[in-house]
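ugh ok fine here u go
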Amino acid sequence: MKKIAIYTRVSTKEQTTQNQVLTLTAFAEKNGWEYEIFEETESSRKSRPIKASLLNRIRNNEFDGVLIQKLDRWARSSTELILEISELIKRNIEFHSYSENIDFTTATGKLHFTILSAFAEFERELIRERTLEGLKRAKTQGKVSGRPFGSKDKAKRRTEGYFKQKINNPPLNNTLPILHLQN
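structure:
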């Protein structure tokens, strides 16, 4: 019998995972799967401890698959989704998305995954291009990239961003030189 991890997520404590749990447990039972439920509430972009715990247990071979309600319940970006599903596929872990009717072990599911991968790569390239354009614009405005050095600059970094105005004659002290962008 397959052992499946059911992962549900909501963003705030005021929301409930109850609808996800009811739908996914019924689906798991219909397929004859043994399951364990992982409910994430009040998750943030950077912190999802229940999911992190689940991923560790998957890496320890405790589950044969993962069942979610929708892809956006698992990942907050296409890059995150692609990286994690790639890892699961390499570990021969099934990944099922109930609402999208996606099973990444089937030919159709593999096609969906390939398309998602292409969009994730496209998204990364767009971000890269915008970053390079921003660095180029900053350079033309006389700004130098990199984080400010020294403890006095830490407060400035929080309020002024990561660019520091170019100094014509920097003082000779124990700080590292400011690196200038080159084409």
